[in-house]
Structure formats: C-alpha cells, structure tokens
Amino acid sequence: MNNTFTMSTRYELTEEGKNRLSKVITYESGNRVEIPLNCNGSVKWFNDNQLMKKKETA
Q1: CA–CA gap between residue 36 and residue 25 (Å, rounded)
Q2: Which residues of the chain have pLDDT under 70?
Q3: Residue 16 has what pLDDT?
Q4: Dihedral through CA 11, CA 15, CA 19, CA 24, nearest 10?
Q5: Are the CB atoms for 34 and 27 separated by under 8 Å?
Q6: Neighbouring C-alpha atoms within 13 Å toward the C-beta of 53
Q7: Cα–Cα distance measured from residue 9 to residue 45, given in angstroms and rounded to the nearest whole number
C-alpha cells in the first residue's frame, strides 16, 4: 500500500483577529488531515478535561 501525500503549512487570520497555524497533509485520494500548531511549531493538543463530566458527590 503506497500512499502519496503532500505536506503544506497553513497560516490563517481568523475573524477574531487571532492567528491560526497548522500543518496540512493531503493524500492522493483527496483526504486531508489538518494538525493545529502553536506559534513555536509544537502540536496544539485538545484539552480532554473539557469533555469529562464532573462527578457529583452526595
């Protein structure tokens, strides 16, 4: 299985005036993966704590 892909950097200014930097991988099939980056080039990880439900204490 040989996948050909291209890799590019995307820089975007959002409507809120914030900069958005990401690495985009586009495969030959047309599928795309966009990885958000911090300004220093490290991956911007999603904070899973936002999805966790708080335990109710009785």
Answers
A1: 12
A2: 1-3, 14-17, 56-58
A3: 66
A4: -30
A5: no
A6: 3
A7: 17
With CA atoms as reference, report the closest residue to 10 among 38, 34, 31. Answer: 34
Q: What is the pLDDT of residue 2?
A: 64
Question: How, if at all, do strands 5-13 and 19-27 pair?
Answer: antiparallel
pTM tops 0.70, yes or no: no
| Residues 58, 42: Cα–Cα separation, whole Å | 42
- Cα atoms in the 13 Å half-sphere on the side-chain side of 56: 1
Confidence (pLDDT) at 9? 79
Name the token pair of 34: 């966009």
